[in-house]
Amino acid sequence: MRILFFIQGEGRGHQTQAIAMAELLRKAGHEVVGAVVGTTQGRGIPSLLEQHLEVPMRALASPALLYSEKSKSLAVWKTFWENLKQGGHYFQQATQVEAYIQEKRPDVIINFYEMLCGLWRLRFKSSIPVLSVAHQYLLQHAEFKLPASSFLQHRIVNTVTRLSGLGTTRKLALSFYEMPDDQKQNIYVIPPLLRAEVKALVPVNEGFILAYMTHYKLEDDLRTYCKQHPEVQVMAFWAHPEAKEVETPLPNYSLHRVDAQLFLDAMRRCTGLVSTSGFESICEAMYLGKPVMLFPTPQHFEQAVNAIDAARAGAGIRATSFLEMGRFLEYLPHHQPIDETFRAWQHQLEAKILEHLAAVTR
After folding, report:
1. Side by side, which strands form the sheet with 209-212?
2. Shortest CA distance to 73 belongs to which of 150, 160, 14?
3. DSSP 67
4. d(CA 58, CA 65)
5. 3-class state of residue 285 by DSSP
6. Strand partners for 190
């Protein structure tokens, strides 16, 4: 079967999910013939995809989250208005998407939360079946409990989720734990997508805390904590636009530019993960038996959902900032391992994906 991907290129999660899906499909004898990658205007294909996906890719401008220059939070209104102003341009790109699809002739499309797929479906009523894959589809599940949020935060996430799923044949909701399907909403619950590289790792404990932040302004709090607690060793990853490869601001604290291989190796060796609440990093930690402390980027509704849901699954604890790391260190001796339960759930993935592929192509 010939399969084409749509991938949201912002952040690490949807990219690693696409890489894991490509591994699974090739193992089953299918061919990934290409990918449309939604990127922030002016940027090309993310290096993670270039290094690991190994398919022809087409980068197109796509809506993106914007952060405040003055604070540590998601700029909710700015995100809303800036992307609204570009809406016409995004819709016009559907013509380029259609030409690319005609060139690649896929039998099935798999969409990793990219709105360009929904806009293409809206403009071109194609008969090609689409599977849309994302953790965010759980937010539409009748049995999923949502946290309190501002109207605008919730509305933005709902809009993105609905646009990405326009015209989709089935929505596949990635979940930390087993849940029943919600067929009334066309939502089918599946395990997280993890790369073979992650599942092959042998975890050890070398006594340091791994830290990850989606917005570099959050680094101030982490540096403050490390300065006040020189006995705590921290290895942190960030995406500062002017960052060096490695910086060592303090003897007990190192900062690294985001690097997929280095991050995974650090995950394998750390005592626990302290992080803003990205879905993929949480899943990797759960699979490797690493406890987590999660705090959402301020005003970031999706991350707030991830933090609550991961704590519900037993992955670790919730917090409000890096400054609460002392509470995490106190929690570590009392953490109840969940890696065996999580692995048993995750190992059902391949059978479920192949079942859904068969169902939409009958």
Report:
1. 246-250, 253-257, 234-238, 209-212, 272-275, 292-294, 316-318
2. 150
3. B
4. 21
5. helix
6. 174
Distance (Å, whole) CA 179 – CA 351: 16
Provide the CA 71 distance to its chain's centre, in angstroms: 23
What tokens appear for 76 in the block? 């909710």
Instruction: Specify the 3-state DSSP secondary structure of 130.
Output: strand
Q: How many CB atoms lie within 10 A of CB 255?
A: 24
190 sits in the region (left: phi over 0; alpha: psi -120 to 50; else beta) called beta
What phi, psi does 63 have (nearest 5°)?
Answer: -55, 145
Residue type at position 84: L
Q: What is the pLDDT of residues 69-128, one digit of tens each?
A: 555 555 444 554 455 545 556 667 788 899 999 999 999 999 999 888 988 998 888 899
- Helix-strand-coil percent breakdown of the chain, rounded to 5? 45, 20, 35
253: amino acid identity, one letter: Y
The pTM of the full predicted model, rounded to 2 decimals, is 0.87
First-to-last alpha carbon distance for the chain, in angstroms, is 12
List domains and CATH numbers for the chain: 2-191+347-360 (3.40.50.2000), 197-344 (3.40.50.2000)
Asked if 166 contacts 90 with a C-beta cutoff of 8 angstroms, the reply is no
